[in-house]
Amino acid sequence: MRLSSILSLRRIVNSGFHPFQVIPKPDMWRKREQLQQFTAWQYASERTTVKGAYRKQDKLFHYLNMQREDEKLTEKYHAEQRVSTALAEHDMEYSKFKSILSKSHILLDNIVLAQLAIYEPRSFKSLVSFAKELARQEGMSVIPDDAEFSYDVHVDNSILRDPLPRAVEYPRGAAENHTNKPRKLRPDEF
Amino acid sequence: MLRSMTRGIFSKIAKNRRFSTEPQIIETEKVQQEVLEAISKEVSSSSRLFAIVYVNGRQWKVSDGDLISLEGNLPLNVGDEIKLEKVLMVGGTNFSIFGRPFLDSNSVEVDAVVVEKNTTNPELKYVHLNHNQTKIVNWKSDEATVLRIKSVIAKNI
Amino acid sequence: MPALPRVDRLKPIYTAAKALNFGWRFSDFLKIPNYNGISRYTNQLHRVTFRFCKQSEDSVGVRNFIEERLVEIGKQNPSVVIYAQPVRNTTPTIRAEYGNGRQLQINAKNLSMDDITKDVHLLFSRSGNPVTKLESRQSALVPSIQGQWTPITWLSTAMNTENLPNKNLSTFKSCKTSATEYLQQKNAE
């Protein structure tokens, strides 16, 4: 259910029918109205001919489907790119940063880290200098902060722990049609 | 509570340069005290804070008056007020406190109201198998619950 | 009357086309009208009208709903005005009007009472804004508290006065030893 969506919105100018005339053959009329909802604002034969419009609609539907499938992964990918770019500005490497965060049990994901880097730059900077200090104490080589913006970090690497186990994601859920049948129960297992 | 959780996790803007020629004894405990006092003073001045909360399988950076749209028809009615308890971080203009992984829910309060429950815009699932006379057009729509963040308050720091 | 009935479709279509950004898809940011929920929450639904027929089979669900559940829902939501309007031989509809002036109408023909209950719940919990594709699942009153990042946020102030190119400001920073540095160290040894 949609609230006041624009129903039957279609182009009239330069399209293939007369605006002030009810077209005969209502069955075909209805189908083409639906088609034109998607192709009314396309160019040339994709708008004016039925065959071209169907071809264009097929493409549009493929693009919409691809967009829907890729949306979640794209968001994560963009977030990762943003975080690594922000880290590059502070002379830090993405892998070192993430490993220190996971060892110190700070479980911020890339999406909010990217938001921090953009909208709350000082918080992000403090997190980076914290990670840098710990990385240095862990024996990784890091480039020290610019003295002008450096934070006075008092931290000891005794706070580091084993990283928490990562949640397992089953993107497709449990398989419904088992290719390998489940083992039969033994009598004592009933 | 927070004091023990955040031990050693805060940082402070350098007042004196780090690379001094004289060796110094840095009293970490004293610095921590100073920082915590400064933070509680900052917090009590009722300035705007932001928090990172975990709701609905996702982390959100929220502040007063934000809207967030959660997936699914959650067991809440419109107008219900809820408290978001999984807070990963709080921050303000001059400070930020990170939880490991969570902050104490008594010291940070994030309150929200359910302002709308509606459906999402239909997304297309489209399967077209060439030469098979198969075209599946499936417009998929989900339910959504919209929250308004009423306040982000930190205390007892 | 002319042989071919003349239908003017242009006017509604061009009115609608004003809101058109691209041909087949709209998107918007997450919004709630009237700053609802900032101080307190008020229901945005103002008026619901049930139109139904007293006899026809199509509106049996609406009739059952009105008999059994409508009063209860009315008591729960005292701020909403509810009309039940019998009209002979009409298609049963439920029309909701919201605080932002929009209205939404559901065709309840041949719907069962449970379906109608679901739809009415949806009508009561909507804010009145149209459903569109969201640009982002979050929207903020104040996007940034510490001040948004700009390209000069973390830029050294020494850049203000130095003449560029400057050797100190343009050295490549790396934690790995370069081949040159390695050879220089070897030479020094």
UniProtKB/TrEMBL annotation, chain A:
<feature type="region of interest" description="Disordered">
    <location>
        <begin position="170"/>
        <end position="190"/>
    </location>
</feature>
<keyword id="KW-0687">Ribonucleoprotein</keyword>
<dbReference type="InterPro" id="IPR035566">
    <property type="entry name" value="Ribosomal_protein_bL20_C"/>
</dbReference>
<dbReference type="GO" id="GO:0006412">
    <property type="term" value="P:translation"/>
</dbReference>
<protein>
    <recommendedName>
        <fullName>Large ribosomal subunit protein bL20m</fullName>
    </recommendedName>
</protein>
<dbReference type="GO" id="GO:0019843">
    <property type="term" value="F:rRNA binding"/>
</dbReference>
<dbReference type="GO" id="GO:0005840">
    <property type="term" value="C:ribosome"/>
</dbReference>
<dbReference type="Pfam" id="PF00453">
    <property type="entry name" value="Ribosomal_L20"/>
</dbReference>
<dbReference type="GO" id="GO:0003735">
    <property type="term" value="F:structural constituent of ribosome"/>
</dbReference>
<dbReference type="GO" id="GO:1990904">
    <property type="term" value="C:ribonucleoprotein complex"/>
</dbReference>
<comment type="similarity">
    <text>Belongs to the bacterial ribosomal protein bL20 family.</text>
</comment>
<dbReference type="InterPro" id="IPR005813">
    <property type="entry name" value="Ribosomal_bL20"/>
</dbReference>
<keyword id="KW-0689">Ribosomal protein</keyword>
TrEMBL record, chain B:
<dbReference type="Pfam" id="PF00829">
    <property type="entry name" value="Ribosomal_L21p"/>
</dbReference>
<dbReference type="InterPro" id="IPR028909">
    <property type="entry name" value="bL21-like"/>
</dbReference>
<dbReference type="GO" id="GO:0005762">
    <property type="term" value="C:mitochondrial large ribosomal subunit"/>
</dbReference>
<comment type="similarity">
    <text>Belongs to the bacterial ribosomal protein bL21 family.</text>
</comment>
<dbReference type="InterPro" id="IPR036164">
    <property type="entry name" value="bL21-like_sf"/>
</dbReference>
<dbReference type="GO" id="GO:0003735">
    <property type="term" value="F:structural constituent of ribosome"/>
</dbReference>
<protein>
    <recommendedName>
        <fullName>Large ribosomal subunit protein bL21m</fullName>
    </recommendedName>
</protein>
Automatic annotation (TrEMBL), chain C:
<dbReference type="Pfam" id="PF05047">
    <property type="entry name" value="L51_S25_CI-B8"/>
</dbReference>
<keyword id="KW-0496">Mitochondrion</keyword>
<dbReference type="InterPro" id="IPR007741">
    <property type="entry name" value="Ribosomal_mL43/mS25/NADH_DH"/>
</dbReference>
<keyword id="KW-0687">Ribonucleoprotein</keyword>
<dbReference type="GO" id="GO:0005762">
    <property type="term" value="C:mitochondrial large ribosomal subunit"/>
</dbReference>
<feature type="domain" description="Ribosomal protein/NADH dehydrogenase">
    <location>
        <begin position="54"/>
        <end position="127"/>
    </location>
</feature>
<comment type="similarity">
    <text>Belongs to the mitochondrion-specific ribosomal protein mL43 family.</text>
</comment>
<protein>
    <recommendedName>
        <fullName>Large ribosomal subunit protein mL43</fullName>
    </recommendedName>
</protein>
<dbReference type="GO" id="GO:0032543">
    <property type="term" value="P:mitochondrial translation"/>
</dbReference>
<dbReference type="InterPro" id="IPR039927">
    <property type="entry name" value="Ribosomal_mL43"/>
</dbReference>
<keyword id="KW-0689">Ribosomal protein</keyword>
<dbReference type="GO" id="GO:0003735">
    <property type="term" value="F:structural constituent of ribosome"/>
</dbReference>
<dbReference type="InterPro" id="IPR036249">
    <property type="entry name" value="Thioredoxin-like_sf"/>
</dbReference>
